[in-house]
Amino acid sequence: MLAVFSVPEAERNKRHVLRSRLAGLGFGSAAPGVWIAPAHHHEETRHTLERLQLAPYVDLFRGEHLGFAPTAEAVARWWDLASLAKQHEAFLDRHEPVLRAWQARASTPPDEAYRDHLLALDSWRRLPYADPGLPPHLLPDDWPGARSAEVFRALDERLGEAGRGFVSGAGVG
């Protein structure tokens, strides 16, 4: 999906908000005023732009990259893949050992589950917005995104219910 926008100079503050929102939605910058994201971002993008009253400045398109550089090379220009990889690696460095420790345990004490689940949620919550979810064939072979998603899912499956039980039992929430 392409987002092509033009904001009058007199409303430059809206231009800044628009760029920030598109980046937060997982868009990469293909050129000034031209941002790109996988098509699955369409509904959330439309909703966000309408809610922020930025839709009048933007046109959205669906399309495919037709050249001239290979698409994987172009993707590497449009997104800061090194920065995204570092974010995934930081998540893995912090939470993969936690997952292994939980996998070695037979019991799931609710207070500990709550603590570790909350920490994982807090670390994870920005990643789905920063990472646009590009197809694997457009990413480096050693891309850590799929592994970090697997670690998060496994932690959520193991700890989520027990953590929610701890909160419910404590009279919180």
From TrEMBL:
InterPro entries: PaaX-like_central (IPR048846), PaaX_C (IPR013225). Residues 2-75 form the Transcriptional repressor PaaX-like central Cas2-like domain. GO terms for biological process: DNA-templated transcription. Pfam families: PaaX_C, PaaX_M. Residues 79-168 form the Transcriptional repressor PaaX-like C-terminal domain. Coiled coil: none annotated. This is PaaX family transcriptional regulator. It comes from Streptomyces alboflavus. The gene is paaX.
